[in-house]
Amino acid sequence: MKIVVFLKQVPAVSELPWDKKTGQLKREAAAGVMDPAAKHALEAGLRLKEAHGAKLITICMGPPEAEEVLREAVALGADRGFLLCDPRLAGADTLATSYTLARAVGAVCPDFDLLLLGCHSADSETGQVGPHLAEELGLPAAAYVEKLELAGRKLMVERVSDEWLETLEMDLPALITVTPRAFAPRPVSMTGVEQAFGGGEVFVLSAADLRADSGHVGWAGSAGQVVRVYAPNIDKKGVLIEGAPKACARELLDRFGDRIGALLAKDLGEAD
User: Fold this and answer.
1) Mean of the pLDDT values across residues 46-54?
2) Hey, which residues does 242 pair with through a beta bridge?
3) Sequence-separated (6 or more) residues with CB below 8 Å from residue 223
4) What is the residue-averaged pLDDT of the chain?
5) Are 64 and 166 in the same domain?
6) In the chain, what are the helix, strand and coil shares in percent, each to the nearest 5?
7) pLDDT tens digits for 242-258?
8) Of 25, 61, 103, 270, which one has the greatest count of Cβ atoms within 10 A?
9) String of DSSP letters for 49-111
10) What sign results for the dihedral spanned by CA atoms 32, 70, 68, 100?
């Protein structure tokens, strides 16, 4: 069995450094870490590897610094990693990213059985790459999975959708996106660190290595363009009411009684 886990390096900051002119994320301006949801997907892959003797390959698209997350994956138990690193791949939207990842799978592991991704990434949270990739490769797919079990060539998965617990069955090969609520990541062992940074198998691939169409990758291949990046203006102000409790309650109702009544009426209507 061959499993491919797609990883992503994201900035380790609360305020993302966007270039306001281009609308692109300035990844070099902040330290990078493995995307949290991708780390949970990696853990799901590692558990399947241990249970079924699978081979686990990781793929990450990003700048040279993104090699760190592939090394981390090797330290955790991945067999090898591939970094898609090429200026022509920069600025890709989810559609161009999915095309590039599909080309990467075809180049490094065309006979895969299972593709695993995080359900979304911390730097954009679109949740689109997984479904796009499944469509690109013509695969059955399930998103936001919290549990998965393998029985031969059948995959059983569970997920919560619209407050309903769904149990799905699909044939391999297939694609799954994993929610961060499941598959808690394991810590890195010292032996793993030595293996990852002592010559672990991590390879760098360019757009030419993937034989990708230049019109479908990076900025040039992106159907969506960021028009403007800005921080929303917050103009709400708090109101402090001071005094005895009874007087405060009276003032509260005098000033905001209409709004409170409207909210209560809405809640009661929804309850009915």
Assistant:
1) 94
2) none
3) 93, 95, 96
4) 86
5) yes
6) 40, 25, 40
7) 989 889 888 988 888 88
8) 61
9) HHHHT-EEEEEEES-GGGHHHHHHHHHHT-SEEEEE--GGGTT--HHHHHHHHHHHHHHH-TT
10) negative
Query: How far apart are the C-alpha atoms of 33 and 9, rounded to whole Å?
Result: 5
DSSP-assigned beta bridge partners for residue 82: 59, 203
Torsion of CA 77, 81, 71, 6, to 10 degrees: -80
Rounded to two decimals, what is the model's pTM?
0.77
Q: What is the CATH number of the domain that holds 98?
A: 3.40.50.620
Summarize the confidence of residues 67-73 as an average pLDDT.
92
Report the C-alpha gap between 225 and 207 in whole angstroms. 21
45: in domain? yes
Beta bridge partners of 178: 118, 145
Q: In this structure, are 25 and 158 located in the same domain?
A: yes
Q: So what's the pLDDT on residue 124?
A: 72
Are 260 and 125 part of one and the same domain?
no
Q: Compute φ and ψ for 112, nearest 5 degrees.
A: -65, 160
Residue 225 lies in a domain: no
Same domain, 120 and 185: yes
- Based on the domain organization, do 19 and 139 belong to the same domain? yes
Interval 176-217: pLDDT, tens: 999 988 899 888 877 767 666 666 688 999 999 999 888 899
Q: Is residue 229 part of a domain?
A: no
pLDDT at 264: 75
84 and 173, same structural domain? Answer: yes
Distance CA 196, CA 60 (A): 16
Least confident residue range of 47-51, 194-198, 210-214, 261-265: 194-198
Number of domains in the chain: 2
Domain range for residue 250?
237-272
242 and 206, same structural domain?
A: no
Residues 117 and 41 sit within 8 Å (Cβ to Cβ): yes
